């Protein structure tokens, strides 16, 4: 327990080396708090011993102010981006796009997106320190982190005058890494390196693969394989016409890591050509660094002085990856259209490289809710297929999109399909004799110790959800409640066992443990009602006009978007019970006119089974224009 006015040191991740640092502070009556740890400490007895000597494991702060780090991050990155736009290195990169105003704007969006993703971990650390001070009513505290311009700027912008940085000391591994880099730096300043730098060194080598990328007009980057867990196939761009350039067997699929077994099997069975990007020529880091130094000279040192090492490193790494993407694309001489599988995480540098090569990028909106989260959708696409007018209004000013296409959500087609197909599968049989409610929970983490703030928070929200579903089940004994989890294997984790045991004691609650056997769209379409912690399936069901209750007891999604206060968002058990009663006992969800507004403005009236068909038709049209 931390008493008021106690001095506290936050060590975000506890290691053996940092344990020694912490012990020194404990000698001076300063408590040490941490929320992540190396493997050696992942043991209840060791954690208990550490607690006795003054090392306190944080495990609930995330739930106190959910998503606050995101909002803080937005403010910080906006201010940092404005400052670094005057840097020499940004000016140098902008010269690459000097004759193309649209490309220059896309670069600014790409830069902001990259900074947001790279700065968030550091902002998160300092935001936790802010929450520690707030939770324990402390006058001041210390944080063990890098004492550089970036962290000092974050503390200043957060107005944390009562937080001081304890400079992070590199451990043995860090020192060895630094010395290796130092020897490389010495070599860089040999004069003959500059004289021998030639553009010819950037040429692409012959690809050692049975697939020739020059044979393809269309490429697809699905992101971590063609399957999204056991939930669905990322097939929104596929034509059923074997002669179409968008038939799956004629699209080159790109990956950047070893294929998972199910994806590899899917590619093999369906005769889908695939290629690992890293089988292509790598852009030389040595040549890149020399070019940077040669062009900027001492201006680069000035940038490091004014903006700090980490921020400039982020920009340099991003610019390097942009150049790497350009080198990759030299292998795709005939490429016309690049299809993107997961919009929000697709590398902005890759999008920018595709734009400069005049290769058309097409993406679909993966999740409706993402468009309202401040730090997402700083994306760069030529064509962007989105859910509807409401998402468009929120995204149009913060992304670099050439063409928005308001077609709706592609996976709503799956609900449409199951609404017209009757089977003798499990949930049709249940439906014949009972009413059932589908429950959509949140993720369970793999390891409750790696980041206790996240793991405890996810356990909290799932436990709270399950507690209240048990109460509902006791009130509605004639209703079957089906829990359709994100990944069934996680129910086998020891730390989840007691929670699952409680569920299993309730006769009218069942956990579906065979997600690969029953499509979530099949189950959802058969359900009389869905109760969910917000997920993409919520929006797809609303688009189909199905009754959904979003259980928002921890201010997500309402902190970012509250669906214009339509009554299907409930905040506590009483509201949940009343809404369930309205649907199951009175047959009343929300007003029909309100549902029609939601379906039109949010989801473009896309419950017609032809969203994917419309996408493919547009792709055919785009390709035809490109081939002229």
Q: How would you summarize this macromolecular structure in one to three sentences?
A:
The protein has 628 residues and is α/β, with parallel strands linked by helices. The chain contains 24 helices and 22 strands.
Could you please describe the fold and organization of this structure?
This protein is α/β, with parallel strands linked by helices. It contains 24 helices and 22 strands. The model is unreliable at 187-208 (pLDDT under 50).
Helix % is 40-55%
Radius of gyration: 27 Å
Number of strands: 22
* Strand arrangement across the biggest beta sheet: 12-11-8-13-14-15-16
Number of helices: 24
Strand percent estimate: 5-15%
As residue ranges, the low-confidence spans are 187-208
Sketch the major β-sheet.
7 strands, parallel
User: What structural category do the secondary elements indicate?
Assistant: alpha/beta
Distance between the termini: 71 Å
Mean pLDDT: 87
From the spread of the alpha carbons, the general shape counts as globular
